[in-house]
Structures are given as structure tokens and as C-alpha cells.
Amino acid sequence: MSTAGRKSMAQEASSQIPQDYVISIGDEILVTLWGSVEADMRLAVDRSGRITLPRIGPVMVAGLRYSELTPAIDQRVAQVFRNYKLSASLGKLRSIRIYVTGFTQRPGAYTVSSLATLVNALMQAGGPSSAGSFRQIELRRNGKTISNFDFYDLLIKGDKSADRALQAEDVIHIGAVGPQVALIGSVNKPAIFELKPQDTMEDVLAMAGGFTAVADRSRFTVEHLDTRNDMRISELTLPQQAKQKPRDGDLFRAFSAVDASLPQYKQSKRVKVEGEVQRPGEFILPANSSLADAIRAAGGLTPDAYVFGTEFSRESVRASQQENYARALRDLETEFARSSSTQRALNADEAMAQSAKAQGSNQLIERLRAIKPTGRIVLQLNPKSKTLPELAVEDGDRLLIPAYPNTVGVFGSVFNGGSYLYGDGNTVTDFLKLAGGPTKGADANSIFVLRANGSVVSARQKSGWLISGGGLDGLTALPGDTVFVPEEMNKTTFMQEAKEWTQILYQFGLGAAALKTIKN
Question: Same domain for 83 and 116?
């Protein structure tokens, strides 16, 4: 082997052994000489603590630190030779016996390398058991405790500076586990942690890696298991109470800010604006925003917007309408059943008529069940209004601004139902005439008009701000109106009870779609 090769091997071996390693009986010393004399020797440290060099004699090495080995051998060789180079390193190391006791997975005696440290031995023994302490690990030598090792320094902080080299007959003793607390919730490492007497809430949080990115950093809750007969759960305010010391068995919970909700009046509102606005879409509005603010967020109205016909729907209203609508249907169904059971047929024709009426009533109920309230709120606007009222919005509100309509619809018991071109100054009566007027079986006293804003005007109303005199004569038609003419009550058709639903249509905002459903 070349001189450079021998030197490289010696440096590599030296780099793996700490400089303060103490040489003792049983170690193997590698000595390499080159120059005026060449030699490669493997020499074991004998029971006297010496190695014997051929032609030179014994050299005492036991008790020397590894950093002192080469100078000590060189000093002895220089007494015999000149003009040489020398390298000394350790070869095969001695084994030592140590003991791992206490609360460990596998207690007992272990034979380890003389380079082994406390952590090496703990790993070989399986570490602390479930009842063992990670924070009270003692290294005992000659009957005295020379070091206390805290495994948390290595496991949590990555700090191995407290690790100690072992010597023969050392004892590693793992004590019983100390006080423990649990930390769960929005922290980076939820776990059960062992405490030392000086540990605070701040230290426990650091052990868990701190809060997650979405945590509510202002508070904790703590459940004291030692006060289970009293109020067990209380809240801690951070950072004011961060220095408070936990108690054995405490359960701490960190909360997520995502799950925390603001009071309703402080929450932003998600509102959908559609139809004749500059930028239709969904918008997030600040708390206490109004309908007018929603329109401004959508860029304002287009020139074709028909503000009077705005369809304003609200989820909370829809849920309430659905509940009340279902109750009204049940009441109507009960009334139909009661009416059928109290009527007696005098002949076959009357029996067939009553059966047909009952069947028609049942089919009407089924059609009405298919209609779902939309949650529409009728906005009491002037027909010529260009702005929406300053009504506060709720989360989930929907605004649909229709285009300006140019027709009026006439449906029901008329000769030619359909949609007719709107004209300024025309009355409801004018559009009834365009449809041919009511048929012979129509109930002219129950005609009603469904306005574009969702309100209902009925001929049965005796007075109001829209009409007077108890009829629709002279009532000015508005763009988007739907005029509906029901049939007489003594007709056995699906339309006979429709006029009784004028109030329901008004209350639940069912609109013209409901009228068409009933009619079909």
C-alpha cells in the first residue's frame, strides 16, 4: 500500500473516534511507520495497559486520551529511529458491560462498544416503557448519579449535548413517569406530554410544536380531571395565562379559528345578484350592508332594469314559508276529507259527482305539494321606483332584477288566455277584454292580479291603497301583471278551489309559476 493510502485510512479511522476517548485494556492500536523505517502493526493493549513495538519495546497507553496516543508513541519511537513518519489510530475496540434498569422495555445487562453513549444504550434497551419517564433518566457510576438525561431535549429539540459516553459497569436507571397532561386540537403535534415541576403552559405548547396556522391563538380550554365533582372545564386566556403551571391529568384543547364564528351582526354577507346589473355574480359584503349596497357592488343597474319587479329571496324566509305551506296543505287536505265524509249522495249521479270532486281535490293537493316556496319577500315599491330600499341583507340572499317587461298575462277561465302587449294607461279590464272576457263558468267576483313584485290584488278586497270599491274596474295594469280568472265553485274541475289560494299565493310568494302548475 502506498504511503498516501495508509495516511488516508488512518485519517478516516481517526475521524470516527472522539478525541477524548480514553484508551483502555482490550483496545487494538494500529501503528503505521514510513520513511527510514516502514511497518504496519496491530497491537493489543495488554493487561498492563501497554503495547509492545518490535525493536523499540513497550509503550504505556492505557489511560491516554485518543488525541494523546500518536505523540506518546512517537516520543518512544524517536528514541530509536530518525527520519520517519508515524500514524497511530484505533482498530478493534473493546466491549464493555453496562446495565439498564427501572421502567424500560427490556431491562438487563448489555454488552456495548466502548464508544457507546447513554442514548445508544437506551435505544438498544427499547427506551422507557409506557410507565417509564422520558425526563428522569439517571446515569450512575460507582454508586453515584453523575448525570440526569432528559429525552425530550433530543426528541423535541434535537439537542444531544447532554448525552454522555459510557464506561464499564455503568447503570442507566429509568424512573417512573412523572405528571402528564394532554394537548389536543389545533396544534402541530397533539400528544400526551410529561412535565417537570417548572414547566408552564407556554412550555407545553412548545412541546406540541405551537399552534397550527388556523388556530385561535387567544384561548385554551382546560379540563381538570382531579376536580370531576366540580366544574371541570374552564377557559384560559392567552398570552395572559401562558405562565400558569398545569396540573397532573389536565386536558388542554386548542381551537381552530376557522370553526369560530362571529356574532351575526359582525359577519360578512354572501349575496347573489343576477339579472339587469352591470356585473352579475356572487358578492361578499360587509356586515350591515343593504340591498342598495349589493346593487352598487354589482356595478349598478342597467338601463333596462325593472326595479319594481325585483325578485328578492331569503333562505331563512324560505324555510319558514316551507313549514307554513306544508301546514296549510295539511289543513286543506283535512278540510276536503271532512267535507267529503259529511256529504250524502241521494242518487247515483250525485255519488259520481262527489267521487269526481274528491278525486279532483286530491289531484289538486298533489299538484300543490309539487310547488316549493322560494323565500321571496315582497318589496313594497312604487311601480316607477329606480332604487331598492335600505333593507339589511342576510347571508345567502338572492336578488334578481328582471328586464322591463312589455306584456301582461291573462289566464284561467277566459276565452283566449295568453300574454298581451302592455300599453300605458290600460286597465286590467282592458286586458280581460283582449282575452275575450270571462267564460260562462267563470267567477268574476274572484278575479285577482299577481303583480311583478309578488303582491296580489283581488276583486274580493273591499278597499286598499291600490283599489277601491271592491272590484278591479278602473285598476291600472302594470308591466308584468298576471290576471287570473277562477271558475265557479259548483264546477267539478281542478280550478274550483284556486280562488281560495289567493291569500296563500300572496303569503308564500309562489308567483305565476304556481298558477300555471294549478291550471295544467
Answer: no
